Amino acid sequence: MQGVVANPAVAPVTRQVSGRAAPAAVPSGPERGQPLAAAVAELPVLDASGRQVPFGALFRERRAVVVFVRHFLCYICKEYVEDLAKIPKSFLQEADVTLIVIGQSSYHHIEPFCKLTGYSHEIYVDPEREIYKKLGMKRGEEIASSGKSPHIKSNILSGSIRSLWRAVTGPLFDFQGDPAQQGGTLILGPGNNIHFIHRDRNRLDHKPINSVLQLVGVKHVYFTSRPSVIHV
């Protein structure tokens, strides 16, 4: 039987064993209802100007849907964030929820990525991937069927070609993050409360947006199935 691995991103929990307190095993899967470790909440993310912000400050006083993406050149991430951009701010305000995207590139890539996707909600980067690591985000791809995503319009060939084109025509030839890093989705706050966590097993394993919005009481968003304008 596979052993349970403690996750350093979650604050330790104790249980009673024979009249004494002992550390409780923390599941390696989703940790709903458990607090985020203070050391993780204190790790910095960077905004578009390079200003450091403690990760925990993003949701200290509010609920937040936090989406970690693979890297900014990933065509799947681009098209997923294009749909995140279509969520009306009024829908989020009515539910008293904020939407946050976190990437793992240099902060210099934030503004061009937002222009490319039309994304105007909050966005930060974790260039050293410290938060990705502490949250147990997978590196490498697990071979698993993730089904057809309602958010991805390109096939693997056309999408990969456009990603490569953006890499070679950019001011610096880089992949704007570790190409092997996977992302995930969390619902956090207020405080260090984890209400939901999903770690992507591969590039297509992101959660459908409306399924996440439903968990925080945000109204259903109708995403068009028509191909978007192609940016290269």
UniProtKB/TrEMBL annotation:
SUPFAM superfamilies, sorted: Thioredoxin-like
Parts of the chain that traverse the membrane: none
Name of the protein this chain belongs to: Peroxiredoxin-like 2C
Annotated organism of origin: Ursus maritimus
